[in-house]
Design brief:
This is Unplaced genomic scaffold K443scaffold_49, whole genome shotgun sequence. It comes from Laccaria amethystina LaAM-08-1. With 282 residues, the chain is an alpha/beta fold. Helices cover 27% and strands 22% of the residues. The strands form 2 sheets. The protein has a 7-stranded parallel beta sheet, covered by helices on one side. It is elongated, with a radius of gyration of 24 Å.
Length: 282
């Protein structure tokens, strides 16, 4: 904060906004800028630094439906702040959708809100967090898919907390193929498995991922840049790591929170030749 204050003072002095001593003849000459409301006096360069600092200090991406949080709150101060914030792409590259904070009717608006939000990001890489503990699986997945699908080519980070958002499906659907097959595209309930994430570098999966025997579980079949992955509730129910479809060989960072059996580790580690950092419960 000291750095920001120093930078603020320097910019204010450069613009001639900083206070100066009154003339000795007691005739105070008011600088023209002082007639402007205080919130509108700050130089654009300083506003940009302050706005970006507001975002960087937060532990979570901003909720897109909360006007009391930045960047939306910054747009509500005055027209000049709104203009600066709306035109600053870096403020709009991260978003958080939490279905638990909204009524069933309000959830239908999330895809449209998210589209408007990310439209200000000027094609920069995106970070997205989605949370729902609701057991209306079909409705949750409908909203989740509508939010994710339009931006799959731009996500660099995903944080997903949704029950059973990845379904296990027959092996003959060939989810490990380099491109979605015609059979995949016609099979119900595998919309996630056909999504391609060309820019995705890191992901957090907070809810359950269950790998069943004789079935493939398509977590990230198409993610050529994925290197960092955290899974909080991974279970092999008769299945093996080979049936969990993701680019294991690319991973450099892996966190598995829950306990796995020893034979699963013996299969998993050889699949991660580039692993550099890991956190495991063994």
């Amino acid at each position: 904060m000291h750095k920001v204050r120093s930078r603020s003072l320097a910019l204010l002095q450069k613009k001639g906004v900083a206070r100066t001593p009154a003339p000795s003849n007691n005739l105070v000459k008011v600088h023209p800028l002082l007639s402007i409301p205080p919130v509108e006096r700050l130089p654009v360069e300083l506003l940009v630094e302050i706005f970006m600092l507001c975002i960087s200090l937060s532990d979570y991406p901003p909720l897109i439906n909360k006007s009391a949080e930045p960047p939306i709150s910054l747009c509500c101060v005055c027209k000049s702040w709104q203009k600066v914030a709306s035109g600053l792409p870096g403020l709009w590259t991260a978003a958080f959708v939490n279905l638990e904070t909204t009524s069933l009717g309000g959830r239908k608006k999330f895809p449209q809100l998210l589209n408007r939000w990310f439209s200000r990001s000027n094609r920069l890489p995106l970070s997205f967090k989605f949370t729902s503990e609701n057991h209306h699986h079909e409705k949750v997945m409908e909203t989740f898919t509508a939010c994710v699908t339009p931006f799959v080519n731009r996500f660099c980070h995903l944080d997903v907390d949704v029950l059973n958002f990845v379904c296990s499906i027959p092996v003959d659907l060939q989810l490990s193929a380099p491109q979605p097959t015609p059979m995949q595209n016609t099979y119900p309930d595998i919309s996630w498995s056909t999504l391609q994430f060309p820019q995705l570098e890191s992901a957090i999966i907070q809810n359950n991922v269950d790998v069943h025997i004789y079935l493939e579980t398509p977590l990230f079949p198409f993610a050529p840049r994925l290197q960092r992955l955290r899974m909080d509730d991974l279970s092999f129910i008769g299945g093996t790591p080979l049936q969990l479809i993701l680019p294991w060989s690319q991973l450099t960072h892996l966190i598995l929170v829950n306990l796995l059996e020893s034979h699963s580790w013996l299969q998993l580690f050889p699949m991660c030749p580039n692993l550099q950092h890991g956190l495991f419960d063994v």
